């Protein structure tokens, strides 16, 4: 059964220095409050997995939490570059960060394979792409039945996955609605999982085919109201497109970024990262 | 009487016209999204638009800033998980056309969204592949739209993120279960299509007021022109009005959020 913990205690217990961490949410339900808690607790040497690093990983990379980033699209959606990611990769600030890049199809399949308990994902991908020449985790295998050449990547098996969701009931069952991304796969693929939610309710009111993650498949649940801002929570609040645009100027400069981090993460106790 | 319009509007309208009513289109963010929604709001009301965030058959009233904006989900027929999107819908062969943008494209329509320069020491680091590598090979065909410039249209891309026809034009030969690849490239100057034999991109249509020299000047290889070079039809007043309304609506909403 999932244990109800404060966000502080959940992160302290399950996110260890050196861990492999997936914080998912495909441009929706991005667990910013949890990301800020990881920054506040100054976790180090994390291998961060996310299809779209987004500004959540930009913040964590700039704050010095990351050793390696595994991703498939590393931009600020609709805006431009992730300047902290680039500064770390290109200039080693605040320290050198290694990257391993995939395509979306590869990562989605790798999460699914992780949830399915398989060592690898097989799919029809990377044909003619030069990504396999710079990522030694991309291999090709021959279908034993048809002889077709197919791509293979290792499954994603994080030490801990962290997602944000609309709500949990009092038993700790979680409902995820809207763009569900790879969140369920991320939770099921991981050894441990933390789910932050907007609220705890008596009844999830979920229809029979809704995306519900049972309590016994989750390690910890923490309440984090507006925990996805500046990303959004379908049915609760919208995406702060304005903050995503403002982030470009904040992240471009090391001093501005450091000041922002002090003001909005280190000297804050809850998520105010997306002042909308 | 001819209408007043910009070269960007000409590009969007021409790209929109490439989509036929009833097509099933996997839409990239940015220019492809603008063109695909313009098509849906004009001549192709039944075009099926699919975004990689899992939103199937979506009808956004405003253009999304990110690939996973709430608007896409709220106006979709249904929303599926991302692994299902790539495995069942794209890899499963349910997508007629993939509509992509890019940072760099070469004469064999290979796309680079990874970096400019050397991989280990990039001059400019770009966001990476995203959905494109598999959209380009698993969709029935691919349309590409981007602005024409010497920086973008290069002889050979620095890095093939996404396959057009490979370094020699033969990248799709004898590959099983692969789509036709890029069938047209729509820019703010012209429309290009791959030569049926060599697969090198050839200019087939010039936009009104654009000369051959303009295209030659903005292309990083010795670009060829089709023997029967056509003139791209101008946008209609209706298309321009709907495009401008769509962009104004989008700007209003994004500025307010």
TrEMBL record, chain A:
<dbReference type="InterPro" id="IPR037171">
    <property type="entry name" value="NagB/RpiA_transferase-like"/>
</dbReference>
<keyword id="KW-0808">Transferase</keyword>
<dbReference type="InterPro" id="IPR004165">
    <property type="entry name" value="CoA_trans_fam_I"/>
</dbReference>
<dbReference type="Pfam" id="PF01144">
    <property type="entry name" value="CoA_trans"/>
</dbReference>
<protein>
    <submittedName>
        <fullName>3-oxoadipate--succinyl-CoA transferase subunit A</fullName>
    </submittedName>
</protein>
<dbReference type="GO" id="GO:0008410">
    <property type="term" value="F:CoA-transferase activity"/>
</dbReference>
Automatic annotation (TrEMBL), chain B:
<keyword id="KW-0808">Transferase</keyword>
<dbReference type="Pfam" id="PF01144">
    <property type="entry name" value="CoA_trans"/>
</dbReference>
<dbReference type="InterPro" id="IPR004165">
    <property type="entry name" value="CoA_trans_fam_I"/>
</dbReference>
<protein>
    <submittedName>
        <fullName>3-oxoadipate--succinyl-CoA transferase subunit B</fullName>
    </submittedName>
</protein>
<dbReference type="GO" id="GO:0008410">
    <property type="term" value="F:CoA-transferase activity"/>
</dbReference>
<dbReference type="InterPro" id="IPR037171">
    <property type="entry name" value="NagB/RpiA_transferase-like"/>
</dbReference>
